[in-house]
Amino acid sequence: MQHPPKKNFANHYCPVDPQTLRTIAVLNHKVVNEAVDPVVRTLLGDGRKSVFFLNAHCANLSVSNKAYAAALRRADYILPDGIGIELAAKMQGNKLRANLNGTDFAPKLLRQAVRWGRSVFLIGGTPGTANAAAQRLCMDIPGLRVVGTRDGFVGADRAQEAIDEINESGADIVLVAMGVPRQELWIDRHRDLIEADLVLGVGALFDFLAGNVRRAPALVRKFRMEWGWRLAMEPRRLARRYLAGNLTFLSRSASHAWRNADRGYVSQRALDIAISGGALLLLGIPMLAVAAMVRLDSSGPALFKQTRVGKAGGHFGVYKFRSMFLDAEARRAALLATSDREGVCFKSRSDPRITRMGKLLRRFSIDELPQLINVLKGEMSIVGPRPALPEEVKKYPTRALGRLDAKPGITGLWQVAGRADIGFDKMVDLDIAYVKSRSTLLDLMLIALTFRAVISGRGAY
């Protein structure tokens, strides 16, 4: 059967070059490290792609199964799936922008596929599972074009028959759900014969959609309790996989991270944990008192969380004691022309948005103390370039992007040299100099000099 030509919507909707997806190495596997939207746009863009997911069980299996490991290496993209991969990345000094587990990611991909006119074919599972999963997807995603389904195992064993059926359907996307590593080996073996642009191995997705396996509630997934939920639902089958398997994976990850660690990173992280943890213990009660005074001085919460740009351009929420009125963000644009600081970073000595208590907090940098929590979480360091606002980073000249090569810090060269009295270009010079020459000794020196800078109050407004 000859199917109609595929519509090419990608050039209009997909500004992301498929080659620009950033990756990080997790136990020698290159894992995509991007937010959901650019990944979806890239996978649905032009070009033939095979995509697999990597979780702790997969990583363990790849060590002993050489054929599976080779299939993973030949995949166009490997997507991170589960908290085990997140923790392994953190052990290596990286932070995943998104956990792209298949049961959440695949429906998002298919919703975008509807908007771009893409069709999908489902192959996998026990008899009837793919068809039941297709019916559920069509109910959940209005307009989704499922152009065919086929059972896995026996159906997939008749490989040429399965491939002919897929190609005759004209599917743009093929979802293969036969479990790891069978699905990856099947895709790797037959990918050149499958005409669809995108082929994904989606594990237990069809079982979840068909109701064969209960899926963890959203609240459970939000708080990373998926292991416990699955163990409760299927204790015999999953105990070894989701408990022993993850422990084995994390042990291997820790060993791998230590062997390949940047010794400078390890010492800096140890210093960060020691100082931030100790400071939070010592300053816990005084910080509660500060929070109470902030609440008494003006209406609104004591803590303020604002999106900032961290290492390698990743976003995170920075914590501060609120030093401004609640409408500060709305009033910012009107005040940009009054900045007392050269360059793209706004700073005003007489900023009318600052509360009475806020002026005192800023004078002695007390408003920055909650960032010890960011340090303990690994989003910041004690020493490093200050985290910038996303709208400021968008205006950065190319050279200034060098500030993003290190974790942002609570203090640094810029802070001890004069803080807001220093212009943007000079700040960039100082931050890049720190990034190139950072060491534990330099960090200790800058921490000591910070106390003098705080007491003097120079540039604090």
Concise structural overview:
The protein has 461 residues and is of the alpha/beta class.
Write the layout of secondary structure elements.
Layout: H1 10-13, E1 23-26, E2 29-32, H2 36-44, E3 49-54, H3 56-64, H4 66-74, E4 77-80, H5 83-91, H6 102-115, E5 119-124, H7 129-140, E6 145-150, H8 154-157, H9 159-169, E7 173-177, H10 182-190, E8 198-201, H11 205-210, H12 218-222, H13 226-233, H14 235-259, H15 263-297, E9 303-309, E10 315-321, H16 328-335, H17 356-363, H18 371-377, E11 381-383, H19 390-393, E12 409-411, H20 413-417, H21 424-437, H22 440-456
Parallel strand pairs: 3-4, 3-8, 5-6, 5-7, 7-8, 11-12
Antiparallel strand pairs: 1-2, 9-10
Explain what you see:
There is one protein chain. Helices cover 50% and strands 13% of the residues. The chain is of the alpha/beta class. The strands form four sheets. It has a six-stranded parallel β-sheet with strand order 4-3-8-7-5-6, with helices on both faces. A hairpin with a 5-residue loop joins strand 9 and strand 10 (315-321). It is elongated and about 80 Å long.
Mean pLDDT: 80
User: How would you classify the helix and strand content by structural class?
Assistant: alpha/beta
Task: Tell me roughly what share of residues is in helical segments.
Answer: 40-55%
For the termini, the CA-CA separation is 72 Å
